[in-house]
Design brief:
Blueprint (H helix, E strand, L loop, with lengths): L14 E12 L5 E13 L4 E8 L1 H23 L19
Antiparallel strand pairs: 1-2, 2-3
């Protein structure tokens, strides 16, 4: 799939809510086993309604932090510049994938 040619329409959110979902149990040996995900909820403040909810794993959350940090730094730099911006290069934040 070519991300640049995606048929997804953008939905604009002006607020977010973030929560951690944890699941814990004891195994047969009595050891505690834990797993968790991070839930991202995007909100339209005009309607006060959630418009998107995504549940991601720990590794995806770390990649999201990296990607957002890099893109925010680039945005801040571009907003301060008087030059005409170049078209953005779309690339994944890592080469991890499910196989």
């Amino acid at each position: 799939m070519n991300i640049a040619n995606s048929k997804l329409q953008p939905i604009y959110a002006d607020n977010t809510a973030i929560a951690v979902k944890m699941k814990m149990s004891k195994n047969e040996k009595g050891d505690v086993e834990k797993e968790g995900q991070i839930e991202l909820i995007f909100i339209d403040m005009l309607t006060q309604q959630p418009i998107g909810e995504f549940v991601i794993g720990r590794l995806t959350a770390k990649e999201l932090i990296t990607g957002l940090t890099q893109n925010l730094a680039n945005l801040e730099k571009e907003l301060k510049s008087k030059d005409i911006p170049k078209p953005p290069e779309i690339k994944p934040t890592s080469n991890s994938s499910y196989r």
